[in-house]
Amino acid sequence: MQRHGFIKEQPDIKHLILFCLSLLPFAVKESDLLEVVFIDDGFGYFEYSAAFQDLVKARHIAVVDAGPEKEYLITPRGKELLDMLERDLRQSVRDRAEAAAIGLVRKIRRNSTITTTHVENPDQTYTVTLRISEPDGQTVAAVDMTVFTQRQCSLLEDKFRRNAELIYKKMIEFLLSEPEDGGDSTNANA
Length: 190
Description:
The protein has 190 residues and is α+β, with helices and mostly antiparallel strands. It is built from six helices and six strands; from the N terminus they run H-E-H-H-E-E-H-H-E-E-E-H.
């Protein structure tokens, strides 16, 4: 299969990986790094994987054990190598990598402010907690809901993670709006 891209050889792939890692302000999972690295169609996953492993073995990339999934960051040794190769990447590849890195950082920061959990209650129901926090950890909004199945827990958590800002906005709009009939909706049946 013919690949159409600028990055095709192992040294170029390694250079691109190091360049992408240098753009990220914190350690990232390999799956996140892939989002930034695969901006050029000249190579595939197997070429990437071989280059990535070589960089880890050569200590140009550090492995950070951060829970269930390892995270990676560029080492000072990797930065030195990158500095020597600074202008070898085409500007168009550098621009696409920078745009992809900005998008990834936004996504990771957003996801770090949104948490969802659930616990099973003694009566076999579940309490789902949906929370949006400031980057410093201060809660912006949190909702606890009781549901009846784990499937409902998963659906609520997934939908909240994907739409947290919209849900927050709609909650605020609803809570600050006047009832449509002009009366107090809490006493509708009184």
